[in-house]
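Predict the assembly for these two chains.
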Amino acid sequence: MRIVTTYNDIRLPEGASKGESVQETYDEIFGDGSWENDYQLYNESLLEWSRGNYNAAFMPALSTQ
Amino acid sequence: MKNFLLIITLIFSSYFGFSQSSPDAEYWITYEYTPKKGMTSKFEQAIAEKTKLYNNTQEMSAYTAKLTSGADAENGRYERIMPRRSIDWFLMDNSAQNKFWMDNVDKYVQNGEGPYVFGRIKELSLNFEKPEPQRYMRSLTRVMKNGNQDHFWRYLGRYKQVLAKVRPEIRLGCFLSRFWREC
């Protein structure tokens, strides 16, 4: 599974924020404590060695225009 | 070539097996390359030429990114991405561009991996429908343990809903590896 974000501002890989916290909004929608519980179970469902991350910069001259 | 034929066979086995549930599947094919030492400039020039000649339409589009972090970045690692392909793309005759690659690009490659074939999970993606290239990419790879995967999918589904609310401009793509193979 690959989870990819693309962005133009190197400081904002997830885009601009509306100022709301992900965790607080998660709990607001799905119930108190749901983020912590769900995130822990999500992490436990993963193989530890598999968590590869990298950043990359697109090269327009080497890409379809 | 042997690997590519194997992948085509696997895709079609999968396609016909699941054709009722995924007639509009969207495939992304990626390769990873490390150029030979001292050949980076020629490697890039050859890819640029290949792209102008053979990847100049949306149907045949290809994007190249250079890794800027991660274990492979210091050796000069590139990812070549062919986005938004339909199952029909795998039946196209790409022999001319494959020959161009072998004659003009491959000689500058120290190490190449791929093709990796991914299916985009549209239900878990946000603002990823249109081909609007951005400057940067962040990629996270996650591998699920065998067994019950409900917790994995529940968190991602909910996380996407939350991101749509708190970061509505995010461009998020989730991809499931169809056939992960190193050549």
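Residues 2-179 of chain B form a domain with the Alpha-Beta Plaits fold (CATH 3.30.70.100). Chain B has one domain: 2-179.
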